[in-house]
Q: What sequence folds into this?
């Protein structure tokens, strides 16, 4: 699962002591909707892959120098999947692994030379890395966990029965791999030494997972239960379930402070309804537009027009075409006019009938 930023640039923020954060630059990146950002702390380089990669220009990965904020682009031998989901970087070997959901492969990039290779993995969904053992783990929607040797790129498939893996976390201290399965409501635990597995039942729709290696504790964000499950890594037992508010979708751990941070997602429907109620007394109406695929500059730059993906979307759309900018603009104009004066709190689907 990927939550994307729908802008073709990246905002860089740096901490300014105790006074909060300051945005220092807005940098252009290759493609549109940057979705995977990873950092190599050893080389001070940031790598950005976009959900809609720039296939036409050939610039598939943006490299940012953390010291100067200057950018360069890697033109990969094999273009990145145009629908990048996630990435990891191995600071020990200076390799970047980028995983996408369309072409069915994992792109391996040498951070020094920019040379690339591809590892074929059908239906990849989530990626994790163990820098100690130099192994990469890719969970698929086909029920497998693919283990990749970082040195040889040889693969081993382990059947884990995942139907919709959302996230992978690795405890390098214990050599354990944890896969959150969104549809099965459980976490698969893989022993990295033996490839044996066990499952731990958690809350509804686990969306993300994080490990505190210092305490050997695993935290699972359950997006539909509105909870975080806390797992003891030594026993694989749930030791606590914590309510954290609506739709937790991301969890990270600061092991030094032993603190856990949760990001909650509130959908457009919820936000629209809440704001409509709050502002209705002031005669302010609040409505949302939910567009389908629209032929924008970003879509054109990504090389999607005329692609099999576009043809698939059009085939599923009752009105038989992609949306145009004017299609969305006319709905926005209507919602902003007095012609919609009795509408508030509504989510207007504007996708030619495709839901």
A:
């Amino acid at each position: 699962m990927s939550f994307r930023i729908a802008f073709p640039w990246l905002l860089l923020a740096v901490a300014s002591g105790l006074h909060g954060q300051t945005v220092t630059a807005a940098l252009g990146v290759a493609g549109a909707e940057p979705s995977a950002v990873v950092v190599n702390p050893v080389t001070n380089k940031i790598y950005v892959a976009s959900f809609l990669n720039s296939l036409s220009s050939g610039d598939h990965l943006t490299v940012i120098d953390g010291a100067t904020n200057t950018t360069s682009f890697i033109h990969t031998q094999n273009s990145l999947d145009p629908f990048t989901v996630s990435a990891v970087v191995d600071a020990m070997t200076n390799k970047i692994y980028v995983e996408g959901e369309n072409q069915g492969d994992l792109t391996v990039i040498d951070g020094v030379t920019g040379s690339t290779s591809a590892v074929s993995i059908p239906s990849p969904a989530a990626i994790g890395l163990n820098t100690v053992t130099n192994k990469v783990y890719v969970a698929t929607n086909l029920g497998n966990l693919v283990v990749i040797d970082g040195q040889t790129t040889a693969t081993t498939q382990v059947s884990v029965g995942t139907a919709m893996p959302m996230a992978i976390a690795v405890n390098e201290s214990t050599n354990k791999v944890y896969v959150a399965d969104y549809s099965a409501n459980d976490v698969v635990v893989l022993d990295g030494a033996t490839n044996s597995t066990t499952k731990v039942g958690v809350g509804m729709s686990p969306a993300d997972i994080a490990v505190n290696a210092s305490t050997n504790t695993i935290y699972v964000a359950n997006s539909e239960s509105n909870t975080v499950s806390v797992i003891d890594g030594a026993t694989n037992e749930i030791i606590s379930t914590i309510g954290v508010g609506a739709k937790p979708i991301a969890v990270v751990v600061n092991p030094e402070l032993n603190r856990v941070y949760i990001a909650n997602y509130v959908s457009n429907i919820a936000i629209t309804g809440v704001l409509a109620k709050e502002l209705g007394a002031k005669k302010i109406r609040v409505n949302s537009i939910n567009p389908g695929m629209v032929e924008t500059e970003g879509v054109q730059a990504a090389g999607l027009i005329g692609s099999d993906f576009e043809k698939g979307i059009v085939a599923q759309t009752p009105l038989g075409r992609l949306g145009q900018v004017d299609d969305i603009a006319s709905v926005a104009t209507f919602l902003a006019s007095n012609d919609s004066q009795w509408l508030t709190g509504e989510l207007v689907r504007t996708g030619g009938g495709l839901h």
Remarks:
- The longest strand covers residues 32-40.
- The two ends are 18 Å apart (CA to CA).
- The domain at 269-350 is CATH 3.40.50.720 (Rossmann fold).
- The chain has three domains: 1-88, 121-265, 269-350.
